[in-house]
Each structure stands twice: as C-alpha cells, then as structure tokens.
What we know:
The structure holds 2 protein chains of 2 kinds. Chain A has 8 helices and 20 strands. Chain A is 24% helix and 36% strand. By secondary structure, chain A is α+β, with helices and mostly antiparallel strands. In chain A, β7, α5 and β8 form a beta-alpha-beta unit. Chain B is an all-alpha fold. In chain B, 77% of the residues lie in helices and 2% in strands. The interface between A and B is medium-sized, with 26 and 22 residues.
Amino acid sequence: MTIVELKDVTKEYGKGVRAVDALSIKVKKNEFFSLLGPSGCGKTTTLRMIAGFVNPDQGDIFIDGEKVNHLPPYKRKTSMVFQNYALFPHMNVYENVAFGLKMRRLQRNQVIERVRQALELVKLSGYEDRYPRQLSGGQQQRVAIARSLVINPSVILMDEPLSNLDAKLRQQMRTELKQLQEQIGTTVVYVTHDQGEALALSDRIAVLNEGRVEQVGSPVEIYQNPSSRFVAAFIGQLNIFQGKVRSILSGEIEVVTEMGFNLLVPFREGLSKNEVAFVAVRPEGINFAEGKSPFLKNTLKGRIMHVSYLGSSIQYLCDVMGKEISVLSHSRRGTPIYRPGDSVLLNFEPSECMILR
Amino acid sequence: MKLLTSSKRFAGFFLLLPALVLFILFFIIPTLILLSNSLFHFVPGGGIERTLTIENFLKFVKEPRYYGILFKTIWISLVVVVSSLIIGYPVAYFLARTRSRLRILWMTMLLMPILIGPVIRAYGWQVILGNVGLINTLLIKLHFIQEPIKLMFTSFGVIIALTQVVVVLMILPIMSVLKKIEPSLEEAAQDLGANKIKTFIQITLPLSLPGIAAGSSLAFALSLSAFVVPELIGGAVIGMMGVEAVKQIMSFLNWPFGAAISTILVLFTLVIMYFYEKLLYRTQMYSSEFK
C-alpha cells in the first residue's frame, strides 16, 4: 500500500532553475525510504514539499491517498525530524514531546501516557524536566524523534538527522534508528547525502540527480546494478574503463577498452556492436592473481602506487597503463601486503563487472 | 599564558580608558554634584545652605501636586511603552522576515525620525496636533467633526508624540531577536499541528521576550525622563518629571528641590534597569542563543 506518492512534481526556484524536475516516487507503508543524492539534487526540496513547507509548481502529492498539494503543514499527517532538531528552547523535554499532542487537544492523562511511552522508546525516561540546552547532541536527537513519532504520523520525514553528530555517535544512532523504525513499524522518508547511511538504513533508495530520479531500488540493487554511471559513481568507489562493444556472445559481452585490452562482462540487453560502453568494477571486486597466467580473461598487469592499511581491509592504488585503479582487499592474518613499486596481476570475474552507458 | 592574558586585559583597559575618562569627568561627577544638591536646604531667593536635610524629598512625598506628577509620568510612560509595543512588534516582525530588496529603504525610513533633532520633531507635532493643525483641519473638512478636538496640551498628544520617538527603540531590539530565531522552530511547530496563530503565541512570542524586555525598558526609561516633548506638546498643563525638574531649577532657582526630583527620576530608572536585567536573564535562559 502506498503512503506517499509524488506524481510529476516540479519546483522551480527563480527563472528556469528546476530544483525538482518532474519527479515521481511511491513510498510504501512501513517502508524506510531514502532520498539520496549530492547537495543541490533536490532531495531536501522534495522532503519539504511532502511536509508542506514548499508548494510544488506542477504535479501532485498524495499522502494516505489524499491529495495534499495546497494543504498547510499543520493539516498534513506528516512530521519532520529537522537537521538541527529544532527543539523548542523554551520548553523542557516533556513539553517539547507533548507539543503536537496538545495541538491535537488530547486529554491530559492521554498526553502524559503517550509522552511517557515515546520517551521510553527513545530511552530518555527521566529526562522530562531537562531543557534542550542541557542535553547532548545525541539526546537532543532522540527528543526530536520522540516528538515526531508521538503524534502517530502517517509518515516521518527526516532531513539528514544524523549529520550533526560525531562519527561514532552517528554509527550508533544509525543502528538505533533502524531498530526503532522496525519496532514501531512506521513509514520513514529519509534525506541524506551519505551513501553509507542510505545503504545501511533503507528498504529502498531513490538516487536523485539534478532534480530527477536516477534510480529507485533496494540497497543491493542500487549497489550491484546501478542503472547509470552517475548512480554507480555516487554509491561507493568505482573503477571505470571506457570502451566499445566488440562482440556479443551468449551470456557475455566483450568490450575493447580505449587502452587496448579486452574485458568480458555479463550480458545486458540493448547494447549493439561498436557502441560506446563503460565497464565498471568495484574496488572489492578485484583480486590479485598471483602466480596465475597473465593471459587469463579480465586480467591486467599493474604496479602498486600507494597502500593504505585500514585494519579490516587494505586499500591499494595501482597503475595500469597510466590509469589509476583502486583495489580493496580483505586483510586476514597471513595475507601478503604489497609495497609500492611491486608488480601485480589484477584479475576480476566478469560477474563483478557492470556495463553502463 | 598568564602573561598573555594579563597583557590582553591591560590592552582592553587601555582601549576603554578615553571613553571612561570622558564618562566619569563629564557625566558621573556632574550628576553626583547635581544629585547631592538634593540633600541641601533651599533659601528662597536662590541660595543653597549646605546643611544636610531630607526636606526636599519629604516635600515631594507629602504634596499631591508633586507625587501626582510622578504617577502621571509613570502612567504616560506605561501607555507609551504599551502602544509602541503594539505598533512596533508587527513592524519588527516584518523587518526581521522580509527578504525584499526594499528592506534598506524601510530601515532608513524607520531611523530617519531619530536623526532629526528632538525640538524640530516636537514642533512638527505641534503643526500636526494644533487646533488649526493637520488632523483637525482634515477632520473638519471631511465633516467628521464641527469643532476642533483638543490634542495639543493634552496627555493624549504627549503620548502620540512620545510614542513616535520611542517606537524605534522598541522595534530595533525586537527585530534583532526575531532575526536570530531559527526558522525551523516555527516550521517544527506547524509541522506538529500548530496553525500560524498558535505558532506565534507558543513559539515566536516567547522566544522574542528578550527583545520585548530590552525594547520596553529602553522605551520606559526614555519616556520617564522625556523633556522636549512634554514641554512643547504638553506645556504647563501636563507636567512630567523632567519638565518639573527644569521648572524648579530654571524658574524658581530651587536647585535642591529640582535635584530631588532628578534623584527620584534616576532612582526610578535604575530600579527599572535592575528588573530589566533580571527579566533579560530569565528570558535568555531558554533563548536559542544561550546554548
């Protein structure tokens, strides 16, 4: 069942600058849906249009099947967690969380009970009398979440809620946020520019670029089968070889790269012979083929340029015929660690390759 | 480290010194001399007998003509504060929120009146408020009234003219506080179900209290000690504290009693400043800048 639907929504700022351009998405009930993209891609504008702070120039927005285009924010069944939390500084934690309930004219004892439950959910019981300035960033964050979910919205909108926290706390809150969402089973639309966050939290991700949807899919789909070079490059690191389709075989396509060597990639519909194509390989898809034949398919000769030991993995930068290739290998005990200057053979399975236009 | 901070502190003091010298030499010392006069005996005819007495203060407290002036001054000042708050707040809100390029023009228009001398401004009000002035002529021409309404030499006239001066000092602090309120706070309130009026009452208004406190106390202190407007618009009929002090000193040459009136005025202003500080502290406790 669809909770939030955007149909060909367009928003222009100024003359002809389209922040959001004919954007259509459907968010299902109880789904954790992320809008992911670089700054200026229109993700925050989209979220603010769902909340009602910005009106679309064209297109329609539906929440719970109801067209809400010109409904003010206070009449929409949404609630937002702001990037800066936007806690009311003159109200304590209890009053902050109770605010939305009081606006809905709930009975006093009901307000007390629901605030208690909400604070328990975010593990802040006992903080009722504190003021926002007396709380740490993480605690403020939890109050903001409690304040949003206590009014039982059809959808919770989150605008980069973790970006103001330090790295370690961000990791921890990420896990808690996901657990909380699963526990209360609410629909979340989440805006972020952090691809790791989107991959870890989301049921589905919409990757936005210049106000348009590039791809919608599960984190695995987006990561493993990006539909465009933009998506592929935005999600994770990538090595890209430009080339031309040389031959189309059963199950595989052979591409000859600019640099002259051939690469075998999995078959994909819609490519014809001599068409320009891009072959992309993730750093973790590349292995060192020590002691193997250099004539093996998808094998390149290279030289190690730079090594970063990251603990659980090792990041190598290799020079392959003047092109910089990034390789990420697992670091297990006994795994040989190459040094700059070492000659290596790089090998990757055709199944690790993505062919993009 | 310590050397650095102490030398910094010394530099700070050094920068303050010229202003401090001027302030003490030409403000604090003359004021103290004037105020000390209030404790001396007045010899009719213009003399001062330098024996300590509190008779000037007793005279003020005992005679209804005098303490009545204090009450009237306070009452007029309160009305001026309230009316400039009612007129000024919407203007402050508009100026804080507008993104119009005309904002500079509005600001200039706002500040213009205080760039004109107070005497000229008061004469301007005489032209507007007089029996054959702008308001009365207009109302008679439009047949709203037959006889001119008395505006000059009334409290009402004084309140109008004082409000015009003081409203600027109300607008500026409120505007600067409103500008610092995160727009996301108002958005959050609306998002949680508060309409625009509730958002204003529950969020914007309480968060702008420091500005209201600053503006009100400035406006109140200025109205209390006003001289030019009550003198030129109110005349002899509407006595206010400032007018009375000058009258005592200049007309009756009664320096001690004039000084006593001034002392009472200064004490009153200090009390207001004290409460203002307390109020400001309380309101700032939860203001967003107090993180």
